[in-house]
Amino acid sequence: MFDLVKKLTGAFGVSGNEEEIRDVIAAEIRPKVDEIKVDALGNLIAVKKGTGKKIMLAAHMDEIGIMATYIDDKGFIRFSNIGGISQYYALGQRVRFKNGTIGSVFYEEKLDDMKNLKLSKMYLDIGAKSKDEAEKKVKIGDTACFVGEALMQGDMLVSKALDDRSGCAVLVKVIQNMPLTENEVYFVFTVQEELGLRGAKTAAYQIKPDIAIAVDVTLTGDTPESNVMEVKCGFGPAIKIKDNSVISHPEVKRLLENSAKELNIPYQFEILEKGGTDAGAIHITAGGVPSGAISIPCRYVHSPVEMVNINDLENSVNLLMKVIVK
Ligand code: CO
Ligand code: ZN
Predict the structure, then answer these.
(1) What angle do CA 208, 192, 48 make, to 5 degrees?
(2) pTM here?
(3) Closest listed ligand to the CA of 296
(4) CB contact set of 305 (below 8 Å; sequence gap of 6+)
């Protein structure tokens, strides 16, 4: 599992530029599925054919990042966010453009109160001495992701982009260990989730599934003075009850809970008070789709040091393998 997560988190895939991560995932799953295609928006859709229920499983392959917006005469680059980038998380970090160029993220030192720190007061330094030199490496509109290579310490994974490459890893593992079933299963690696669940919406419209389950990370309430929340790392996959984008369909919630009970694996319930996931777009598409989600507890979401427990990933795989044969 760790090798797969490392491979997936290491790939570039800022929202709207998912080509590289899509190729990496496609190479992992191609021999194991009946059909694989890329749709007009860039979603990767892999199908295991069958005559039973149409089940859609979705994990988003895009990651948050920044976009170069302006290069000054000295070669410093201003940027804006692609998805939910916190100025505090970004400060002092390295970002990487698709061509490998690394930028150091820093801020205007005249700022006298860090409370006033905004992305518009920050810049990237790629070591260029002039605008001309900078433009040879970075052009306006180019995007960059955080640098934060995956490592494992004890049973915790630390990396950038565990949101949602850990969900992608879960789907890849299910495909690689595909159980026998009559059901037709659509594994969808979606684009542009971080910009508002965009890819999932068009994917669900094409597939018109009977049921859908998203696999994504969720916040936790298990760090010092964290916001009150029931979810903890290492206590099993979280079955979504609600977030800002969806109230899980009771049948889907029950299916997930019963499957976890039958497997005798730990599970928890998730109520996420901010944020959403692909299920939010899927359930109101194509006449409506009963939807829910398996949420992977993740600390420090949208930072380069996101943390996930590897046992929660393994148990998410087990849970999904059970659910898709039902
Ligand atoms: Co996210
Ligand atoms: Zn996510």
Answers:
(1) 40
(2) 0.97
(3) 2
(4) 148, 158, 160
- Find the 225 Cα to ligand 1 centroid distance in Å: 22
Q: Could you tell me the maximum CA-CA distance found in the chain, to the nearest angstrom?
A: 65
Q: Are residues 113 and 222 in the same domain?
A: no
Express each pLDDT in 140-175 by its tens digit: 999 999 999 999 999 999 999 999 999 999 999 999
* CB-CB contact of 270 with 239 (8 Å): yes
| Active-site residue flag, 193 | yes
Residue 126 CA to its chain's centroid (Å): 27
Residue from 18, 28, 63, 193 carrying the catalytic annotation:
193
Q: What are 109's two structure tokens? A: 């030192």
Residue 202 and residue 259 in one domain: yes
Q: Which among 200, 162, 156, 195 has a CA at the least distance from the CA of 57?
A: 200
Give the structural domain span for 121: 65-146
* CA of residue 121 to ligand 2 center, whole Å: 27
